[in-house]
Amino acid sequence: MSPAGRLWERLGGRIAFGGDYNPEQWPEATWAEDVELMQAAGVNLVTVGVFSWAMLEPRPGELDFGWLDRVVDLLHEGGIAVDLATATASPPPWLAARHPESLPVTRDGVRLSTGSRQAYCPSSPAYREAAVRMATAMAERYGQHPALALWHVNNEYGAHTPACYCDVSARDFRAWLERRYGDLAALNAAWGTAFWSQRYGAWDEIQPPRLAPYSSNPVQELDFHRFSSDALLACYELEREVLGRLTPQVPVTTNFMGLFEPLDYWDWAAREDVVSHDAYPDPEDPVSHVDAALAADLMRSLRLGQPWMLMEQAASAVNWRPRNRPKRPGAMRRISLQAVARGADAIMYFQWRAARRGSERFHSAMLPHAGTRSRVHGEIRALGAELGRLAPVVGARVPAQVALLHAWDSWWGLEAPDHPSTELRLADRIRDHYRPLWDANVPIDVRPPGADLSAYRLVVVPNLYLLSAEAAAGLERYVAAGGHLLVSFFSGVVDEQDAVFAGGWPGPLREVLGLAVEEHWPLAPGETLGLRGPDGTVLGTASQWTEVVIPAGAEVVAQLAGGDLSGGPAVTRHRHGDGVATYVATRPDPDAMAALLAAACADAGVDGPPLQAPPGVEVVRRGDAVFLLNHTGEAVTVPLARSAASLLDGTRHEEAVELAPGGAEVLAEPAA
Ligand code: GAL
């Protein structure tokens, strides 16, 4: 059995339900009540120790595990399993007092201070040694404890300190560069240091891209992103090594943050036993559930469809936005069921009991300040009971026929300065591609460039600025073998060293796409052009970006109407081998984008959803179950082809499922 499998076996095959538990913030008299209330709410797993380092090691080397022993024992007696943090997310103040150099330094040279959290330089030997000592002590102390179900390494790596620009980081950056390039000549070539007198004659002349008079070298920036993701990953690996050695039987995770720019989660996820994710969709944003679905799909995809954990969400409001609205009644349930639909086998929260002190005292919790009779706690208990009935979906897969390509290094490169436009944001562009597919209830996996794509009927590539020869060759083979590919503008512009492809773009994809892009022609904010079919049919509008596209075999499907490039190709289609490759050289409006993607799905033979539902109703199949989530404020009816039973309460729906505004249902079997 896989280590992750052991976690759910430990939970009796049930969905994990619980949250961060910070008993050290409360008098010991509260703990027994906590456990009782957890039991009443159906909690079976809690995360302990995330920010406990200063309480566990009050002075350097002086360990005080007594209180944690009692907490873990108490939870165990109450039948609640423990996701035990290694407690290294926030070093105690003594670390900075003894090692001021362990505090992180910003790009403009400011050394950050203590009194908050995550105040450490990822490359700091003092931090790393202390963290490894702590992780070792935790593993030695609790490795055999029967309550221990999962290791939670650190917490949200990079959330506040994604990179450090101090001298220690500079030294590690140089070592990283030496490993990458071998010698200075190779570095000088890759970084293009012939430009602006940047040539390096010795390794120690190289610095992180600190605040400089003008633009920094783009490859120095890109490599520093790579290095910074790796520096934090090295911290994780140091702890993971200890845990793997001392407790090989216990699965290990560290919590991610969805589409989080600083860390290359493809690299990270490969080193975890189970992916876990923290999701805080904004209750004030009417479409935040679409972003939540995208993040969920990414989390499921990071380990090839393996079930993942929603490690943190808010029971209601958070404290860290300028205005923090509570979740409306039913919203927390619906968004939790959405996570399960999209592959989560754990629904957890930050946090169990609302804090009375500290920066997060206005953050909601499973047990709010208002107590057990509150609305929020009532919804928590009801959801705990419902999740208890969803055991049949545990371990089940979410099938997808469409893949969306995403790469972190390309993201870092794309959003760098000195481009034809600095107004492109990859997350927005991914949303432009994701939203129409979400609306159509087409399931999506996210894959890295270079992945095996043969299982997918359609591959969507939003703005893959940086393209390796290997990834391009993979895409060519995919199309030649009959695959359908849709590539959006400003893709295939540079290679892995950010060197611009010569001879037109998208560099090594020109042949597959049957065209060459000669010039990038960005549009001003608010500038909108028409999109017309070759016969003049109105297809919609285009904004943000246009390109001078020279077809070389590709057929023009849409043209620009108006603007400097009026009449030029906006969308093209090219047969290559047994497949078809579409290029989108602009940003179509949402309806035009939806039409394009619908045509691509039809062309590629992508199956429709298991049920046809009104707009705003999410339909997801997971294993044999079908989840229906009504994200609208209206009651809706979803017709059934044949009767189906509810997994949540056993109700038999004959001809249709009636969903209340914001309501949800889970059908036990495919009803189409
Ligand atoms: C997360 C963090 C938690 C808590 C939460 C509040 O980023 O991991 O510890 O701070 O946010 O929303």
Automatic annotation (TrEMBL):
The keyword Heme does not apply. Residues 20-388 form the Glycoside hydrolase family 42 N-terminal domain. Zn(2+) binds at residues 121, 164, 166. GO terms for molecular function: beta-galactosidase activity; metal ion binding. Substrate binds at residues 117, 155, 320. GO terms for biological process: galactose metabolic process. GO terms for cellular component: beta-galactosidase complex. Keywords: Glycosidase, Hydrolase, Metal-binding, Zinc. It catalyses: Hydrolysis of terminal non-reducing beta-D-galactose residues in beta-D-galactosides. Coiled coil: none annotated. Residues 400-606 form the Beta-galactosidase trimerisation domain. It is an enzyme of class 3 (hydrolase). Belongs to the glycosyl hydrolase 42 family. This is Beta-galactosidase.
